[in-house]
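Q&A FORM
Asked by: J.P.
Topic: structure of Superinfection immunity protein

PROVIDED:
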Amino acid sequence: MNIHVPSTYEIYRGWQSVQGTGLEIGTTLLVGAVLVLACSMVLFLLPTFIACRRKVHHAAVVAVVNCTLGMTGIGWVIALLMACLLETDTRRHARLRRSEPATFLSVP
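REPLIED BY: S.T.
REPLY: Here is the structure written out as tokens.
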């Protein structure tokens, strides 16, 4: 009866073929973590991006509310509502030319 006992090197090579190299696994995890972080940051700053895109008059206020209170969830919703409902620069300039009173929630 001939019994083969594998050496440490044979066990290591067999495990490496099943597992893959550490560099491939580490790189995949790193790229995945960076992508998740980037997507979550874009989603977190979405109210600020919307306020800048709409040219909201108080976009800096939206950004401050988003960055300071956005982590609570309620603050993020408030910042999103502010970004969508606050007066834009073009509407503000048109209102000032007509001398109309300001309303907080002027519909765009």
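FOLLOW-UP: The CA atoms of residues 1 and 78 lie 77 Å apart.
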